[in-house]
């Protein structure tokens, strides 16, 4: 119990950030109308590819001779960024279809 | 300096999603979000790492990014809109896999350095490993189900739910053993393997028609994993991005469950558990067929028409002909709308994208509540490839498995024409009394052929 209490005190700002981000996330997303749910999902999917930042940090921290880490980290970067690039581009393609046609 | 870039990236992500709440600004929103991602990646490439920034592993970063950029772009440019759920599943799985690899490496480092890491740090890693694995294999199986591979429907074992619970308990026990046995890495390996298997078993019992829920849920899992990975690398942008995705997935999961009037648990357990007490009253009413010319004439002289498209329309690739009919009718001053049920299609909002692809103006798409108000003043409602979402039993018959599901009350319009391949019941296996109502008529055939017939008949008038 005391360990949890200490953890909370030590990471106070972090926990605030966490809570507010969760509220912010729900606020922003719940405003998206039904017709845009598929693009929202693929766009959000692309954002979940943000894990590639972790891969980049990991690769930069690793000794160049340490292949046991470099190879899987590189693979993580590879699959993660397929998600990023593919996700954003396909969302853009979809949203292009929702463009208002100027016709009377 | 780089902290500023990270801040900018975080703002772009949030504001980008904010702009996606309106079809007019959504494209800009997506662009802004992708810029945010770009900023974040650039900043990560160049900011100073505290411990040791003397290494230069640029080749290990550049090669995967260049490769994946070309592969991702190729897939994104070429995928069919009907296959969008499959693509989202695969991409989602890849995001999960990426997080799994990262937490696995971090755990490997943690146990091999014999460095007594924080308990909370390692727990976060194991959670990320577990949720990421479920998102990865679960998404891959969801893809197989969506793409109609037969084997994917047969993976479910007897007593699947009990097996799943045992697997979960095993994972928790192994995690405990890992901590008491001075971080022996073998335990992590087993946890990884079981988590991957669990992902498959998690999705296996869920029926193909419940995919909108599954995709949303797995999406939120990937978001949560990304957020957990953000905690590990103490990177706030990752945390923020992950939580945004988690929120999006969670909200959509809840919405989809509501649209089917089922609890999440019920969906996860799989199928309509109430199938035993299917409606016992036999429907022996008469169905009436409508001929090509009658149908065309009726549409021609009405003032308002509503299409109710279901997944059957998309399967038959008949959206373009729908649009053609819409144009012919509009020339004749018939008001045409499309009523979209929230679970029409294979993922949330799927039907809207399919119609948008066929150039249907989104202002013509109306949602459930608005549509239900509009039916009474509608002359003809045309149901194309939808069944359960227009079943009056959901309101009238408390013994029906569909009872309580929000549906489109198409029978309140003056006339209903149902386009259907045959009299087979829908996914829920329930007969639809709509077909026997006085004001409803049937128009049999493949959706595309039927609409084609109707379209040419209309043009001849």
Structure notes:
The complex is a heterodimer of chains A (104) and B (461). By secondary structure, chain A is an all-alpha fold. Chain A folds into 2 domains: 31 residues; 63 residues. Helix content of chain A is 78%, strand content 0%. Chain A has 5 helices and no strands. The relative contact order of chain A is 0.11. Chain B has 461 residues and is α/β, with parallel strands linked by helices. Chain B folds into 2 domains: 189 residues, no CATH class; 169 residues, TPP-binding domain (Rossmann fold), CATH 3.40.50.1220. Chain B is 58% helix and 7% strand. Chain B contains 17 helices and 6 strands. In chain B, strands 3-2-1-4-5-6 form a 6-stranded parallel sheet. In chain B, helix 14 links the parallel strand 2 and strand 3. In chain B, helix 8 packs antiparallel against helix 9 and helix 11 packs across helix 17. About 2% of the residues of chain B have low confidence.
Topology:
The complex is a heterodimer of chains A (104) and B (461).
Chain A: H1 2-10, H2 12-30, H3 37-48, H4 52-61, H5 67-97
Helix pairs in contact in A: 3-5, 4-5
Chain B: H1 2-19, H2 26-46, H3 58-78, H4 84-112, H5 119-146, H6 160-180, H7 185-203, H8 211-232, H9 236-259, H10 264-269, H11 292-300, E1 304-309, H12 311-315, H13 319-331, E2 335-340, H14 350-357, E3 365-367, H15 368-374, E4 380-384, H16 393-396, E5 415-420, E6 440-444, H17 447-460
Parallel strand pairs in B: 1-2, 1-4, 2-3, 4-5, 5-6
């Amino acid at each position: 119990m005391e360990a949890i209490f200490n953890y909370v005190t030590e990471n106070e700002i972090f926990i605030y950030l966490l809570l507010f981000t969760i509220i912010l996330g729900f606020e922003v997303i719940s405003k998206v109308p039904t017709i845009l749910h598929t693009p929202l999902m693929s766009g959000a999917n692309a954002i979940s590819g943000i894990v590639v930042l972790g891969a980049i940090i990991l690769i930069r921290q690793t000794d160049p001779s340490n292949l046991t880490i470099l190879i899987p980290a590189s693979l993580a970067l590879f699959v993660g960024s397929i998600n990023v690039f593919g996700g954003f581009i396909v969302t853009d393609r979809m949203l292009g279809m929702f463009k208002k046609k100027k016709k009377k | 300096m780089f902290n500023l870039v990270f801040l900018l990236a975080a703002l772009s992500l949030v504001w980008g999603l904010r702009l996606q709440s309106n079809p007019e600004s959504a494209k800009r929103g997506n662009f802004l979000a992708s810029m945010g991602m770009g900023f974040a990646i650039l900043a990560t490439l160049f900011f100073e790492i505290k411990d040791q920034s003397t290494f230069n592993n640029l080749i290990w970063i550049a090669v995967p990014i260049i490769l994946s950029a070309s592969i991702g772009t190729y897939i994104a440019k070429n995928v069919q809109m009907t296959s969008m759920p499959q693509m989202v599943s695969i991409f989602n799985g890849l995001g999960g896999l990426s997080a799994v690899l990262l937490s696995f490496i971090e755990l490997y480092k943690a146990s091999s350095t014999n460095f007594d890491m924080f308990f909370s740090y390692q727990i976060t890693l194991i959670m990320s490993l577990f949720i990421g694995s479920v998102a990865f294999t679960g998404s891959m199986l969801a893809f197989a189900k969506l793409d109609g591979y037969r084997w994917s429907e047969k993976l479910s074992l007897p007593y699947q739910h009990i097996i799943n619970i045992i697997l979960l308990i095993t994972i928790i026990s192994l995690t405990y053993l890992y901590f008491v046995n001075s971080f022996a890495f073998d335990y992590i390996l087993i946890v990884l393997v079981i988590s991957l298997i669990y992902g498959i078993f998690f999705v296996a019992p869920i029926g193909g028609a419940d995919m909108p829920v599954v995709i949303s849920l797995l999406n939120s899992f990937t978001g949560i994993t990304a957020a957990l990975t953000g905690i590990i690398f103490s990177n706030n942008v990752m945390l923020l991005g992950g939580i945004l995705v988690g929120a999006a997935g969670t909200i959509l999961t809840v919405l989809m469950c509501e649209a089917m009037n089922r609890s999440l648990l019920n969906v996860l357990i799989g199928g309509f558990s109430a199938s035993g007490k299917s409606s016992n009253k036999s429907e022996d009413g008469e169905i009436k067929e409508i001929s090509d010319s009658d149908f065309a004439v009726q549409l021609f002289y009405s003032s308002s028409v509503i299409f109710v498209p279901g997944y059957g329309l998309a399967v038959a690739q008949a959206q373009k002909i729908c649009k053609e009919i819409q144009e012919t009718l509009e020339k004749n001053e018939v008001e045409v709308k499309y009523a979209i049920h929230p679970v029409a299609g294979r993922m949330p909002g799927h039907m809207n994208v399919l119609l948008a692809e066929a150039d249907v103006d989104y202002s013509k798409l109306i949602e459930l509540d608005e549509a239900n108000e509009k039916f009474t003043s509608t002359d003809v409602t045309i149901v194309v490839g939808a069944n359960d979402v227009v079943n009056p039993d959901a309101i009238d018959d408390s013994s029906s498995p569909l009872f309580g599901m929000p549906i489109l009350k198409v029978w309140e319009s003056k006339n209903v024409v149902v386009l259907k391949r045959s009299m087979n019941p829908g996914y829920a296996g329930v007969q639809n009394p709509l077909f026997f109502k006085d004001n409803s008529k049937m128009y049999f055939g493949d959706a595309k052929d039927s609409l084609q017939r109707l379209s040419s008949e209309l043009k001849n008038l």
